[in-house]
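Researcher: Quick test of sequence recovery. Tokens follow.
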């Protein structure tokens, strides 16, 4: 009887934003999730949880490395990344030999001076395990799929839903792909075709009649064709600044590279055709508030997407709070703001105190001016809460010393650290009632569809300053060269760029394992 496969699992997972003025450092990972060695085996949700479950079901010998995840933010400092990378690679090296590697990646991360985090990491892992050991990666559908990512992995599989509901099942799919490769059932040929469409995520839902949903359904229908192993569709993280950015489709076939190229190109071409539909209508905060006051019922969600922590922003904008105060409104409204200085002052003053504060634009001050407000400190907390679902479902996360602060009918959640929005966990953690509010400021372009499902009357997308804007028409990139939508609405003669990868395995031991010295054939072609 053959020995079970030894499968290594590890990742450095976050989403980066080149437009913010801060770095992601090691403390950001320590506040979110940093599991080492056997601590990794405690993961029960998300992509890692799905991978562990799938491996256990198949009787694999799991080799846990390092799982480091952080709330989206500025690019990683070089020191932070090299610290995590060095530890992950050492754990891998000390665990050799392994039969395969699973990398649950994001795909939208960047590092100071290095650039493409995932490309650098998969290349380093490949150098450790050699050409004959298969590597399978999973990605967020907002990944920037780079040449190195395609070149150094056997297969890349993206999440299929936005809002993200399938992280766990994607982990299971990654396991299935890797073990099928090891068993010799499949021989992946992979092609990624992309077009230069740089848009925000608001119209990127994979549900209903949304334009991106149409592209996703078109791609997933291809999986019914004989020989097609997997298809993925990408709405690239638009706040990165890398060469060759764009969205499109990735197709993996069983040994048929020409079919993978043809089908991925079809996905990319359809994505280009829907580019105008991928930009939303936007409102000024004043317009949105006036419109919301005319609507019956609530809550009305004011989507301040330009300050989305989920896209890497600091969460410190008070643009919408300013508009609510200037209106002024007499209905219940909830507003979040990251302001460590104000949070500290409130904790020092104590609950029940009336105090004057200067709020906002202190973490990343390039996007606006602070405002002076007077209000009452209603509640103080340590800022810890538990995610009810999504990427970090069940994970305890720390937004630092936090405050429920009242300014007449407006309640402001003041926290110390930015945290990703899945639902309304942050508001609820300080006792804010989201169901009975007229206005709720939400700093996320998509997850509100899940977090407030069935309870909101309308959601209005705001046009405010910030590093995660709803539309990219006024952003000017440095590294992203050449024509791209929406800077150029028409690009004559445009053809998708295609990244190609083909793996050929030859020879196997009696247990069905591929020969570690088998030839690796990988090519990248641009046309």
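Model:
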């Amino acid at each position: 009887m053959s020995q079970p496969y030894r499968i290594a699992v590890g990742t450095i997972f976050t989403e980066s934003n080149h437009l913010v003025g801060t770095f992601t450092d090691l403390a950001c990972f320590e506040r979110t999730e940093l599991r080492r060695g056997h601590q990794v085996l405690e993961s029960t949700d998300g992509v890692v949880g799905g991978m562990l479950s799938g491996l256990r079901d198949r009787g694999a010998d799991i080799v846990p490395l390092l799982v480091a995840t952080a709330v989206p933010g500025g690019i990683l400092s070089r020191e932070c990344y090299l610290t995590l990378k060095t530890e992950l690679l050492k754990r891998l090296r000390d665990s050799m030999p392994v039969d395969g590697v699973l990398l649950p990646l994001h795909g939208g991360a960047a590092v100071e001076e290095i650039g493409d985090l995932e490309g650098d990491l998969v290349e380093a892992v490949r150098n450790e395990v050699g050409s004959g050991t298969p590597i399978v990666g999973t990605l967020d559908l907002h990944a920037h799929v780079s040449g190195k990512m395609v070149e150094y992995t056997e297969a890349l599989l993206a999440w299929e839903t936005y809002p993200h509901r399938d992280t766990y099942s994607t982990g299971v799919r990654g396991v299935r792909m890797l073990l099928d490769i090891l068993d010799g059932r499949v021989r992946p040929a992979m092609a990624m075709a992309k077009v230069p469409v740089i848009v925000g995520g608001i119209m990127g839902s994979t549900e209903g009649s949304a334009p991106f949903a149409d592209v996703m359904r078109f791609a997933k229908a291809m999986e019914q064709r004989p020989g097609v192993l997997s298809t993925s569709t990408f709405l690239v993280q638009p706040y990165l600044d890398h060469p060759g950015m764009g969205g499109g489709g990735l197709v993996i076939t069983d040994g048929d590279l020409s079919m993978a190229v043809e089908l991925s190109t079809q996905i990319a071409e359809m994505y280009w055709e829907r580019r105008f539909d991928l930009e939303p209508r936007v409102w000024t905060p004043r317009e949105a508030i006036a419109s919301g006051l005319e609507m019956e019922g609530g809550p009305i969600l004011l989507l301040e997407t330009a300050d989305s922590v989920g896209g890497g922003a600091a969460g410190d904008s008070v643009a919408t709070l300013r508009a609510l105060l200037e209106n002024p409104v007499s209905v219940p409204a909830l507003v979040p703001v990251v302001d460590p200085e104000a949070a500290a002052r409130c904790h020092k003053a104590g609950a029940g105190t009336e105090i004057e504060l200067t709020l906002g634009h202190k973490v990343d001050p390039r996007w606006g001016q602070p405002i002076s407000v007077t209000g009452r400190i209603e509640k103080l907390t340590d800022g810890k809460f538990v995610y009810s679902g999504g990427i970090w479902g069940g994970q305890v996360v720390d937004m630092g010393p936090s405050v429920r602060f009242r300014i007449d009918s407006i309640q402001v959640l003041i926290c110390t650290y930015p945290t990703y929005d899945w639902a309304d966990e942050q508001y609820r953690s300080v006792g804010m009632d989201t169901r009975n509010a007229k206005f709720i400021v939400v700093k996320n372009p998509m997850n509100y569809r899940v977090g407030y499902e069935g309870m909101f009357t309308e959601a209005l997308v705001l046009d405010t300053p910030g590093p995660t804007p709803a539309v990219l028409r006024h952003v000017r990139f440095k590294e992203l060269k050449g024509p791209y939508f929406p800077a150029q609405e028409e690009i004559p003669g445009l053809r998708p760029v295609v990244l190609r990868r083909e793996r050929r395995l030859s020879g196997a031991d009696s247990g069905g394992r591929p020969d570690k010295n088998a030839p690796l054939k990988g090519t990248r072609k641009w046309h």
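Residues 78-95 form the longest helix (18 residues).
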